[in-house]
């Protein structure tokens, strides 16, 4: 465990740790997606991220029972289009309300794989009473547009752009926020920029080290009492 000001980062398994950490105002999840990552032909060679995704099993999905409405007032979950039926059915039975939103990728992977080009990626924001979305008028649109982060930037294939994270974090109510699949710590950086108190969990030592570095640097630049 590493503490950076009021923020706490755990190097470990979210399925074992999350229950012990208690209630948070908001939970932000970018878990391993479940999707068919084969194919891509000639395009694949120029997008090394696809092979990194396979190597780190980021196409194998996650255990949906980690989504627990008793542990956070609201939740945002990123997912692949193919996961939507299962996810929406699960969310609908457990939360007061939800909204399906998305972010538009300016530079999506060209791999089509007999599917649509992945230029829009969905996320779901669900909440229970008293934890509804918040934000100024201009921030309440359902789509945010950004370029993607090249896999080589932080040696991670699926780093979310901060423009997307910032918009979502501004829409989540409350001061405390947890990300159980924090990867390189993008949620933490955004949380700190918005004066929230962040907790993160990551199981890969390499990505945990990157998250510590990014979050420490964000804390030093944005220190708030
Ligand atoms: C989609 S990535 C998150 C990327 C992150 N949003 C970012 O911007 O860097 C999912 C992360 O979950 C981590 N992960 C997978 N299973 C986990 C588990 N059981 N406990 C903790 N972390 C896990 C993976 O190592 C990976 O870094």
UniProtKB/TrEMBL annotation:
Source taxon at top rank: Bacteria
GO BP field: methylation
Broad class of enzyme this protein falls into: transferase
Keyword Methyltransferase: yes
EC number: 2.1.1.-
One GO MF term: site-specific DNA-methyltransferase (adenine-specific) activity
Catalytic activity, reaction form: a 2'-deoxyadenosine in DNA + S-adenosyl-L-methionine = an N(6)-methyl-2'-deoxyadenosine in DNA + S-adenosyl-L-homocysteine + H(+)
Keyword list, A-Z: Methyltransferase, Transferase
Boundaries of every DNA methylase N-4/N-6 domain copy: 141-212
Protein family: Belongs to the N(4)/N(6)-methyltransferase family.
Name of the protein described by the UniProt record: Methyltransferase
Organism: Novosphingobium guangzhouense
